[in-house]
Amino acid sequence: MALTLDDMNKIAHLARVGLSDDEKNRYTESLNNILGLINELQAVNTSGIEPLAHALEVTQPLRADVVTEHNQRDAYQAIAPAVQDGLYLVPKVME
Amino acid sequence: MLHTYTLAALRDGLARGDFSSRELTQHFLNRIQQYDSELNSFITVCADNALAQAQIADLARANGSAHALAGIPLAQKDIFCTQGVKTSCGSKMLDNFISPYNAHVISQCESAGLVMLGKTNMDEFAMGSSNESSFYGAVKNPWDLTKVPGGSSGGSAAAVAARLAPAATGTDTGGSIRQPAALCNLTGLKPTYGRVSRWGMIAYASSLDQAGPMTQTAEDAALLLNVMAGHDAKDSTSIDKDVPDYTVTLNNDLKGLRIGIPKQYFGEGLDADVATVIQQSLKELEKLGAILVEVDLPNTGLSVPAYYVIAPAEASSNLSRFDGARFGYRCDNPKDLTDLYKRSRGEGFGSEVKRRIMIGTYALSAGYYDAYYLQAQKVRRLVQQDFVKAFEQCDVIAGPTSPSVAFGFGEKNTDPVAMYLSDIYTIATNLAGLPAMSIPAGFSKNLPVGLQLVGNYWQEAQLLNVAHRYQQVTAWHSQLPFQFA
């Protein structure tokens, strides 16, 4: 199941990562090598095995639904590329 | 020489008044100035802040209110958010990032009065085993400047190995504390998953990441783990469990301790010389009263492919926050939102990071999720079950940390798979969430060899005990490269 350039374009778009044509070519080869490695998993019989997402048997800790944090927007926005009136500025999304 | 003192010796020296924290801090700052251009182990040196922290520690000591470790300098891996101080994670993406808050680990260290010398170099976003992928350039191994220090905590490892800092923090997702510790002759511990808070620790793979100490000795690792460990309500994966004093049990007798030797760890791929050094270290443990038993970890070989699905998948999700919108790198003149995202990320991330994001995205995408991600999670359970069964027959598992000693620059980074396979002994413990450490066990071709000890859940005290007793009858851990002596 080797990756094609078309696959690379689709994946890069999903990940919103811009790749040059040169990068796409170089990465196709290394990604196919990595797929060769991870395809070893396909041969493993895992019927009846539950997936393990978390090493320990724990549940989500809960807390009372009360406000405990305070607004630190100014501190966080001090390092933003572009802000106005407490909002983050980005290029237009739609025409 | 102050820079050959362990944390324990520095603690005692400060208590006796043999030297002040200011003198101590200045000493290490001078060493960094003198030697770090050769090693490139620091990304940011915090000279003024450090001296100010040292001053506060000296005052606290004078009026009797100091923590036992107050005033001792420490290097922090540049993956921990540090308020008001650049936090780059080894990436161009965060080259301009001044963190507005402190990671929990940083707050814990500050409360203990530890002095932050600076932020250490690392593989970009913690993805790597050689520290060659950092935006800030490779780190050199102080034992041989033509060799890698290991990764991703390569900067922390090199800094401590050359005694530019008496200890450092690291993080470990697939071996990133243990492997550089092994390659640089240090003691490095990855705690049980959930033992140390991940709040403010830039996330790579959330179900695998853990922070831990990188030190000269097991006793020092115990002292630093005492500071780092503990429940944090801000990290929902942090476990609410009491932290023992890890120093109290260091001297326990090892008589009758069963050490499991996995038969899969001594096969093909392991350097013969490294194997010999490890066999010798196991004999030392037997002399201390331990009993060696063979154990079986049949799914060892699957741990690398499983990890290289799970970790990139989790990373692809975690790294989606770096989008040029709210902080970090933003491309010039974005035409629209999509262009903002694609070019900020395309330009801000290095190639290894982009590769792992791609693999992770693919493994999670529609049509592939079951075959890759879900299958890898099932294999993960098989890997965990191997350890659970093995721990019925032994107390601690031992073997080599790395299949080879430090390798040369460029030797493994052309084919990612070659680099990935060097994580064979460390990766399974992250998948299972178990605690593990690497300690100096000897040398091969004048380069350090690390012995790995893996413990059952929450058995950090036992690991430190075994390591400490071993270090009482061996002197490997006291050695440092002569040009940094």
Cα gyration radius of chain B (Å): 21 Å
Strand order of the largest sheet of chain A: 1-2
The level-1 CATH class of the domain at 2-257 and 478-484 in chain B: Alpha Beta
> What is the straight-line distance between the termini of chain A?
39 Å
Mean pLDDT score of chain A, rounded? 91
Name the shape of chain B in a single word. Answer: globular
Structural class of chain A: mainly alpha
Unreliable parts of chain A? none
CATH fold topology of the domain at 5-41 in chain A: Histone, subunit A
Number of strands of chain A: 2
Question: What would the CATH topology of the domain at 2-257 and 478-484 in chain B be?
Answer: Amidase signature (AS) enzymes
CATH homologous superfamily heading of the domain at 2-257 and 478-484 in chain B: Amidase signature (AS) domain
Regarding quaternary structure, what we see is heterodimer
Outline:
The complex is a heterodimer of chains A (95) and B (485). Chain A is mainly alpha-helical.
Can you put this structure into words, describing what you see?
The complex is a heterodimer of chains A (95) and B (485). Chain A is mainly alpha-helical. Chain A has a domain at 5-41: Histone, subunit A (Orthogonal Bundle), CATH 1.10.20. In chain A, 35% of the residues lie in helices and 4% in strands. Chain A has 3 helices and 2 strands. Chain A has helices at 5-14, 21-38, 73-77, and strands at residues 83-84, 87-88. Chain A has a two-stranded antiparallel ribbon. The longest helix of chain A has 18 residues, at 21-38. The radius of gyration of chain A is 22 Å and the shape is flat. Chain A starts with a helix and ends in a 7-residue tail after the last strand. The relative contact order of chain A is 0.08. The model of chain A has no long low-confidence stretch (mean pLDDT 91). Chain B is α/β, with parallel strands linked by helices and 485 residues long. Chain B has a domain at 2-257 and 478-484: Alpha-Beta Complex (Amidase signature (AS) enzymes). Chain B has 15 helices and 11 strands. Chain B has helices at 7-16, 21-39, 47-62, 104-111, 154-161, 178-184, 218-228, 272-287, 300-318, 337-348, 351-364, 370-390, 416-421, 427-432, 460-473; strands spanning 42-45, 73-77, 115-120, 168-172, 187-190, 210-215, 258-262, 291-295, 396-400, 436-444, 447-455. In chain B, strands 4-6-5-10-11-9-7-8 form an 8-stranded mixed β-sheet. In chain B, α4 links the parallel β2 (73-77) and β3. The longest helix of chain B has 21 residues, at 370-390. Chain B is globular, with a radius of gyration of 21 Å. At the A-B interface, α1 and α2 of A face α9, α10, α11, α12 and α13 of B.
